[in-house]
Amino acid sequence: MTEEEFIAAAAAEEAHNSKSAKKRDSDELKALGMQLAELSANQLKELELPEKLNTAVTAYQRITSNSAKRRQRQFIAGVLRGDPDEASTIKARYLAMTEHDADSKRVHHGLENWRERLIADDTALTEFLDEYSGASAQELRVLIRRARTAKDDAQRKKATRALYRKLSDIAQA
Questions:
Q1: Number of domains observed in the structure of the chain
Q2: Residue 117, domain CATH
Q3: Are 60 and 77 in contact (CB under 8 A)?
Q4: H or E stretch including 119?
Q5: By the 8 A CB rule, do 73 and 60 touch?
Q6: What is the reported pLDDT for 14?
Q7: Which residues contact 166 (CB under 8 A, 6 or more apart)?
């Protein structure tokens, strides 16, 4: 390795380990820690966090004092900083979990839109059957008719829920 190559490599390493880069990394870990703190107990269990990090996050969720929360955020970031490989694994799992949640919300909203369209418009059934060819038109017509002709709110809710469940079953199949 020539002297010029050595100087270039040292400069590249120094740039990677600059104060600004360290600050960005630290801020990312704090943000990840706060995202973890917003999760429910079941979601935290699903992520399979290390015991020390799980304890720190659940402690943060119980704290009410602002200054104590700030200190706990710093502690969580420190725990994450302690094992960068584990932190990147946790971040990947978190992103996968939130992506799955976003996908399921998108499907849910799409099915709700179909349900509303089917109740409001007769031509929507044809469109739905074109998109989901395995659906039974007869069953859907019965459920749509029940939702349209419900006499009170309780019956309407029951009928629209039944229609949504049927649409969900069709979409999953």
A1: 2
A2: 1.10.60.30
A3: no
A4: helix 84-120
A5: yes
A6: 56
A7: 139, 140, 143
